[in-house]
Amino acid sequence: MIDSESQKVLKSTFKDFDDDFLVQDLTEKQQEKAKKKAEKKDKALEAYEFDLKDFIIHSDGGVTMLAEQFYIRVVTTTTTDANGNTRTTTTYHYYYNDIIIVDISNDGKINWTSKIDKYQHSTNDGGYLSSYALMVTNDKLHMIYNMKARDVYEKEEKKDLTKEEKKAYLTLFVTVDNDGKIEEEILIDNRQEETYIIPKLCEEFGNNQMFLFTQRGPKTKKLGTLTLK
Question: Which candidate, 1, 138, 4, places its Cα nearest to that of 62?
Fold first, then answer.
Protein backbone atom coordinates (compact mmCIF):
# COMPACT_ATOMS: atom_id res chain seq x y z
CA MET A 1 0.00 0.00 0.00
CA ILE A 2 1.49 3.38 -1.07
CA ASP A 3 0.64 6.89 0.12
CA SER A 4 -0.59 8.83 -2.93
CA GLU A 5 1.08 12.07 -1.80
CA SER A 6 4.38 11.02 -0.24
CA GLN A 7 4.79 7.87 -2.39
CA LYS A 8 5.94 6.06 0.76
CA VAL A 9 5.15 2.39 1.24
CA LEU A 10 2.61 2.12 4.06
CA LYS A 11 2.09 -1.63 4.04
CA SER A 12 3.54 -4.65 2.24
CA THR A 13 1.87 -8.05 2.02
CA PHE A 14 3.43 -11.27 0.77
CA LYS A 15 2.02 -14.68 0.04
CA ASP A 16 4.07 -17.55 -1.37
CA PHE A 17 2.58 -19.75 -4.08
CA ASP A 18 2.70 -23.32 -2.78
CA ASP A 19 4.12 -26.14 -4.90
CA ASP A 20 0.69 -27.61 -5.71
CA PHE A 21 -0.44 -24.25 -7.12
CA LEU A 22 2.64 -23.93 -9.33
CA VAL A 23 2.46 -27.45 -10.81
CA GLN A 24 -1.31 -27.97 -10.95
CA ASP A 25 -1.38 -28.09 -14.76
CA LEU A 26 1.40 -30.66 -15.08
CA THR A 27 1.12 -34.42 -15.29
CA GLU A 28 2.29 -36.45 -12.29
CA LYS A 29 5.50 -37.30 -14.12
CA GLN A 30 6.14 -33.64 -14.98
CA GLN A 31 5.40 -32.59 -11.39
CA GLU A 32 7.94 -35.04 -10.00
CA LYS A 33 10.52 -33.91 -12.56
CA ALA A 34 9.99 -30.22 -11.69
CA LYS A 35 10.24 -30.86 -7.94
CA LYS A 36 13.37 -33.02 -8.29
CA LYS A 37 15.00 -30.36 -10.48
CA ALA A 38 14.30 -27.69 -7.85
CA GLU A 39 15.59 -29.93 -5.04
CA LYS A 40 18.77 -30.69 -6.98
CA LYS A 41 19.47 -26.96 -7.27
CA ASP A 42 18.46 -26.47 -3.62
CA LYS A 43 15.80 -23.97 -4.72
CA ALA A 44 12.05 -23.64 -4.34
CA LEU A 45 9.74 -24.05 -7.32
CA GLU A 46 9.26 -20.73 -9.07
CA ALA A 47 6.76 -18.98 -11.32
CA TYR A 48 9.18 -17.64 -13.92
CA GLU A 49 8.87 -15.20 -16.84
CA PHE A 50 5.50 -13.78 -15.79
CA ASP A 51 4.56 -10.30 -17.05
CA LEU A 52 1.94 -8.17 -15.28
CA LYS A 53 -0.69 -7.68 -18.00
CA ASP A 54 -3.79 -6.24 -16.31
CA PHE A 55 -4.37 -4.24 -13.12
CA ILE A 56 -8.05 -3.82 -12.23
CA ILE A 57 -9.05 -1.30 -9.55
CA HIS A 58 -12.35 -1.98 -7.78
CA SER A 59 -14.78 0.61 -6.41
CA ASP A 60 -13.92 -0.36 -2.81
CA GLY A 61 -10.21 0.25 -3.37
CA GLY A 62 -9.25 -3.39 -3.84
CA VAL A 63 -7.40 -4.59 -6.93
CA THR A 64 -7.11 -7.70 -9.08
CA MET A 65 -3.86 -8.36 -10.93
CA LEU A 66 -3.34 -10.69 -13.89
CA ALA A 67 0.09 -11.90 -14.98
CA GLU A 68 0.86 -14.05 -18.03
CA GLN A 69 3.86 -16.27 -18.59
CA PHE A 70 5.63 -15.13 -21.75
CA TYR A 71 9.03 -15.88 -23.18
CA ILE A 72 10.82 -16.28 -26.50
CA ARG A 73 13.25 -19.07 -27.35
CA VAL A 74 15.60 -18.58 -30.29
CA VAL A 75 17.02 -21.65 -32.04
CA THR A 76 19.73 -21.26 -34.67
CA THR A 77 20.69 -24.26 -36.80
CA THR A 78 23.60 -24.46 -39.22
CA THR A 79 23.78 -27.23 -41.84
CA THR A 80 26.29 -28.06 -44.55
CA ASP A 81 25.36 -29.91 -47.74
CA ALA A 82 27.46 -32.37 -49.75
CA ASN A 83 28.99 -29.51 -51.77
CA GLY A 84 30.20 -27.70 -48.68
CA ASN A 85 27.55 -24.98 -48.83
CA THR A 86 26.52 -23.76 -45.39
CA ARG A 87 23.02 -22.67 -44.49
CA THR A 88 21.96 -21.07 -41.22
CA THR A 89 18.32 -20.95 -40.11
CA THR A 90 16.99 -19.08 -37.08
CA THR A 91 13.60 -19.96 -35.61
CA TYR A 92 11.82 -17.81 -33.05
CA HIS A 93 9.56 -19.75 -30.67
CA TYR A 94 6.88 -17.70 -28.90
CA TYR A 95 5.34 -19.02 -25.69
CA TYR A 96 2.26 -17.51 -24.04
CA ASN A 97 1.31 -19.78 -21.17
CA ASP A 98 -0.47 -19.75 -17.79
CA ILE A 99 -2.30 -16.77 -16.32
CA ILE A 100 -1.96 -16.11 -12.59
CA ILE A 101 -4.65 -13.99 -10.94
CA VAL A 102 -4.23 -12.34 -7.52
CA ASP A 103 -7.11 -10.55 -5.78
CA ILE A 104 -6.16 -8.03 -3.08
CA SER A 105 -8.50 -6.23 -0.65
CA ASN A 106 -8.37 -2.49 0.04
CA ASP A 107 -6.33 -3.08 3.21
CA GLY A 108 -3.65 -5.06 1.36
CA LYS A 109 -4.85 -8.55 2.28
CA ILE A 110 -4.57 -11.20 -0.43
CA ASN A 111 -8.06 -12.65 -0.76
CA TRP A 112 -7.32 -15.43 -3.24
CA THR A 113 -5.08 -16.59 -6.05
CA SER A 114 -6.03 -18.60 -9.13
CA LYS A 115 -4.14 -20.01 -12.08
CA ILE A 116 -5.55 -20.58 -15.55
CA ASP A 117 -3.76 -23.43 -17.29
CA LYS A 118 -2.89 -22.23 -20.78
CA TYR A 119 -0.29 -23.34 -23.32
CA GLN A 120 0.32 -21.44 -26.56
CA HIS A 121 3.35 -22.04 -28.75
CA SER A 122 4.01 -20.74 -32.25
CA THR A 123 7.02 -19.96 -34.42
CA ASN A 124 8.12 -16.93 -36.43
CA ASP A 125 4.77 -15.12 -36.11
CA GLY A 126 5.11 -12.95 -33.01
CA GLY A 127 2.46 -15.04 -31.29
CA TYR A 128 -0.27 -13.78 -33.62
CA LEU A 129 -3.04 -16.06 -32.28
CA SER A 130 -1.68 -16.14 -28.73
CA SER A 131 -2.23 -14.33 -25.40
CA TYR A 132 -5.76 -13.42 -24.25
CA ALA A 133 -8.49 -10.77 -24.37
CA LEU A 134 -10.04 -9.59 -21.10
CA MET A 135 -13.53 -8.37 -20.25
CA VAL A 136 -14.62 -7.28 -16.75
CA THR A 137 -18.32 -7.44 -15.80
CA ASN A 138 -19.49 -6.62 -12.28
CA ASP A 139 -17.47 -8.96 -10.07
CA LYS A 140 -16.35 -11.41 -12.77
CA LEU A 141 -13.42 -11.66 -15.16
CA HIS A 142 -13.90 -13.12 -18.64
CA MET A 143 -11.01 -14.19 -20.85
CA ILE A 144 -10.93 -15.31 -24.46
CA TYR A 145 -7.97 -17.16 -25.92
CA ASN A 146 -7.01 -19.87 -28.42
CA MET A 147 -5.49 -23.26 -27.71
CA LYS A 148 -4.91 -26.31 -29.87
CA ALA A 149 -7.34 -29.15 -29.23
CA ARG A 150 -4.55 -31.49 -28.14
CA ASP A 151 -3.74 -29.10 -25.28
CA VAL A 152 -7.37 -28.71 -24.18
CA TYR A 153 -8.82 -32.20 -24.06
CA GLU A 154 -7.91 -34.84 -21.50
CA LYS A 155 -5.95 -37.96 -22.50
CA GLU A 156 -9.03 -40.15 -22.93
CA GLU A 157 -10.85 -37.52 -25.02
CA LYS A 158 -7.90 -37.11 -27.37
CA LYS A 159 -8.00 -40.77 -28.37
CA ASP A 160 -10.97 -40.12 -30.66
CA LEU A 161 -9.34 -37.15 -32.42
CA THR A 162 -7.52 -37.43 -35.73
CA LYS A 163 -4.04 -35.96 -36.15
CA GLU A 164 -5.48 -32.90 -37.91
CA GLU A 165 -8.18 -32.43 -35.29
CA LYS A 166 -5.56 -32.38 -32.54
CA LYS A 167 -3.81 -29.49 -34.32
CA ALA A 168 -7.02 -27.49 -34.78
CA TYR A 169 -7.59 -24.41 -32.65
CA LEU A 170 -10.36 -24.00 -30.12
CA THR A 171 -11.33 -20.55 -28.89
CA LEU A 172 -12.05 -20.77 -25.17
CA PHE A 173 -14.20 -18.52 -23.01
CA VAL A 174 -13.12 -18.59 -19.36
CA THR A 175 -14.92 -16.93 -16.44
CA VAL A 176 -13.40 -16.28 -13.01
CA ASP A 177 -15.82 -15.26 -10.23
CA ASN A 178 -15.09 -13.12 -7.16
CA ASP A 179 -13.92 -16.17 -5.20
CA GLY A 180 -11.41 -17.23 -7.84
CA LYS A 181 -13.50 -20.12 -9.15
CA ILE A 182 -12.83 -20.87 -12.83
CA GLU A 183 -15.33 -22.02 -15.45
CA GLU A 184 -14.31 -22.88 -19.01
CA GLU A 185 -16.28 -23.45 -22.20
CA ILE A 186 -15.56 -23.66 -25.92
CA LEU A 187 -16.66 -20.49 -27.71
CA ILE A 188 -15.57 -21.42 -31.24
CA ASP A 189 -14.50 -24.79 -32.60
CA ASN A 190 -12.23 -23.85 -35.48
CA ARG A 191 -12.62 -27.31 -36.99
CA GLN A 192 -16.17 -26.28 -37.85
CA GLU A 193 -16.10 -22.48 -38.06
CA GLU A 194 -12.64 -22.04 -39.65
CA THR A 195 -12.59 -18.65 -37.94
CA TYR A 196 -9.83 -17.46 -35.63
CA ILE A 197 -10.08 -14.79 -32.97
CA ILE A 198 -7.02 -12.55 -32.60
CA PRO A 199 -7.00 -11.85 -28.82
CA LYS A 200 -4.39 -9.07 -28.94
CA LEU A 201 -6.65 -7.02 -31.23
CA CYS A 202 -9.89 -7.50 -29.27
CA GLU A 203 -11.05 -4.60 -27.10
CA GLU A 204 -13.63 -4.19 -24.35
CA PHE A 205 -16.09 -1.33 -24.74
CA GLY A 206 -19.31 -0.10 -23.13
CA ASN A 207 -21.10 -2.34 -20.68
CA ASN A 208 -20.52 -6.08 -21.03
CA GLN A 209 -19.35 -5.80 -24.63
CA MET A 210 -16.18 -6.50 -26.56
CA PHE A 211 -15.01 -5.92 -30.11
CA LEU A 212 -13.82 -9.23 -31.58
CA PHE A 213 -11.24 -9.16 -34.36
CA THR A 214 -11.45 -12.38 -36.35
CA GLN A 215 -9.67 -13.89 -39.32
CA ARG A 216 -10.88 -16.50 -41.79
CA GLY A 217 -8.17 -17.75 -44.09
CA PRO A 218 -5.11 -15.64 -44.94
CA LYS A 219 -6.99 -12.59 -46.25
CA THR A 220 -10.50 -12.35 -44.81
CA LYS A 221 -10.65 -10.28 -41.61
CA LYS A 222 -13.84 -9.28 -39.80
CA LEU A 223 -14.85 -7.23 -36.77
CA GLY A 224 -17.67 -8.51 -34.56
CA THR A 225 -19.05 -7.87 -31.09
CA LEU A 226 -19.55 -10.09 -28.07
CA THR A 227 -22.28 -9.10 -25.61
CA LEU A 228 -22.76 -10.72 -22.21
CA LYS A 229 -26.23 -10.67 -20.70
Answer: 1
